[in-house]
Design brief:
Blueprint: H1 13-18, E1 34-35, E2 38-39, H2 82-86, H3 109-113, H4 147-151, H5 186-196, H6 202-205, H7 241-244, H8 257-267, H9 273-276, H10 312-315, H11 329-338, H12 344-347, H13 377-386, H14 392-395, H15 431-434, H16 454-460, H17 471-477
Antiparallel strand pairs: 1-2
Length: about 475
């Protein structure tokens, strides 16, 4: 930086010190100036810079900087509190910069400070990066900081390998501060990579732009094409492109399974797909992970229980898969005929096996008796006729046995007596004590136990209106058996 001399009118000492301010944030200078290995203090001047600038406007008190013995001797104990004296703090490399770099006879330091960094420092970027130097530089040194983060606010964020690439690789003039706007198309920097891409041949396929459709900024290897028209899953992810795109022909490749797997289809013998007339829509049974363990959607006859583990040929004999009957007897007629506990054929059981059996096992069949005819007497008529305590037949008892008996045992039958006279003292007496005619339990006698002498009974009821010496009349007045 050159300095020119201007005639200035001397000003008072204190006013001059007030004007001793430096360039604002962003004015950068050398942290330490050296000559022949010697550190030059701020109050000194490096001879390689040329003659010392004129002092016309400097304070008249020369002893502030000079020792006094001669003009070349500078005070070793020079101290100046720039913040306290001027209100402006010197930070970073500015703390060690020579005072004369800013305070010289060019003119008022305030005029240069008002220009910001450009007041002292030439713009090596030719004005193309703006005037705010602190966007990239600090007061410590000229090395730019946080350039990757700042670059991410441009139209080309630096990610992956781009973040570690030297600036001049994309900006040819970067070494001299020239960061002219550059083309962001991949091929601008990667033309050589494009020319070397032969597996597949990118140029032959016309893939000369938009590299980011397959490649990522981390590495060129392991490119991943967005195979949205035919999503690559399972084993398809590891197959080489040329397996499906024969001869590096990528346009118009069919996406149906048969196009690639016809040989697998024809070579399958368990079961024989071609002989059985299986469709070539392989995805109905197979997955992209493996040809093994195919799963057919057996929706017309859901496979459950033991049917799941059966070989297809167990039901589809001779690899005939069309028209196979779905009724149980078609496969299980031998099981039906061979069953003797009970003998299904002799008993005339239907061949709808699922009524009692399930697909897990033939054992523990569970027959639903919902369809059996109702009425105990159909099975228990002999029991009814042989019962003599009381004689059901002679007494004319109804044949709905469940009115008194349970299915656990015939003994301990309990009749639901419709008359409340069974309570109290009558609760434990034998039926025959009241029902004297075992052939007719509809008739009963009260007088056989109570007041055997009619005359005495008549005397006891001489004041009872409508009194009649008759069991039905007794019950009408004494339904609970009480006096």
């Amino acid at each position: 930086m050159s300095f020119s001399r201007h005639a200035r009118t001397p000003m008072p000492r204190h006013h001059a010190f007030v004007l001793l301010i430096t360039v604002v944030l962003g004015v950068l200078a050398c942290a330490v100036t050296q000559r022949a290995g010697e550190v030059v203090p701020p109050q000194s001047w490096r001879e390689s810079r040329g003659p010392v600038v004129p002092h016309d406007t400097f304070p008249r008190d020369c002893s502030i900087c000079h020792a006094g013995s001669n003009w070349q001797a500078i005070r070793a104990d020079f101290k100046f509190d720039h913040l306290a004296e001027t209100g402006v703090a010197l930070e970073g490399a500015h703390q060690a910069a020579e005072c004369l770099r800013c305070h010289n006879d060019r003119g008022p330091v305030t005029a240069f400070a008002a220009r910001g960094c450009a007041g002292c420092h030439d713009d090596e970027h030719r004005g193309k990066l703006g005037k705010n130097c602190v966007d990239c530089h600090t007061q410590t040194n000229w090395l730019p900081v946080e350039q990757v983060a700042r670059h991410n606010r441009t139209r080309f964020p630096l990610v992956g390998a781009h973040a570690a690439t030297a600036c001049f690789r994309c900006h040819p003039g970067a070494q001299v501060g020239n960061f002219d706007r550059t083309d962001i198309q991949c091929v601008t920097c990667h033309a050589d990579d494009l020319a070397q891409a032969t597996s597949p041949d990118h140029q032959a396929q016309g893939w000369t732009s938009n590299c980011d459709r397959c490649h990522i900024p981390t590495t060129w290897a392991g490119a991943g094409f967005n195979h949205s028209t035919f999503p690559l899953t399972g084993a398809h992810q590891t197959v080489a492109c040329t397996t499906c795109h024969v001869g590096n022909v990528f346009a118009g490749t069919p996406s149906d399974c048969r196009s690639c797997h016809l040989d697998d289809y024809n070579g399958t013998t368990d079961p024989n797909h071609a002989a059985a007339g299986f469709p070539t829509t392989c995805q109905q049974c197979h997955s992209t992970s493996s040809w093994r363990n195919a799963t057919f959607n057996h929706s017309s006859f859901p496979l459950t229980g033991a049917h799941v583990a059966l070989d297809c040929a167990a039901c589809h004999a001779g690899n005939v898969f069309r028209g196979t009957p779905s009724n149980c007897a078609a496969c299980h007629i031998d099981d039906y005929n061979g069953t003797n506990d009970p003998d299904h054929a002799a008993a005339g059981f239907p061949t709808t096996c699922q009524q009692c059996h399930n697909t897990v096992s033939w054992r523990n069949a569970n027959f639903s008796h919902a369809g059996i005819r109702s009425g105990c007497v159909q099975c228990h008529l002999a029991d009814y006729n042989s019962t003599n305590d009381p004689n059901h037949s002679a007494a004319g008892f109804p044949t709905n046995c469940e009115a008194c008996h349970t299915t656990r045992s015939w003994d301990g039958a309990k009749f639901n007596h419709p008359f409340p006279i069974t309570s109290g003292a009558h609760s434990n007496i034998a039926c025959a004590q009241c029902h004297l005619n075992p052939g007719n339990f509809r008739s009963f006698s009260c007088t056989s136990c109570h007041e055997h002498n009619q005359n005495d009974t008549d005397n006891d009821h001489d004041r009872v209106g409508g009194y009649v010496y008759q069991s039905q009349a007794c019950y009408a007045c004494h339904p609970n058996g009480s006096h």
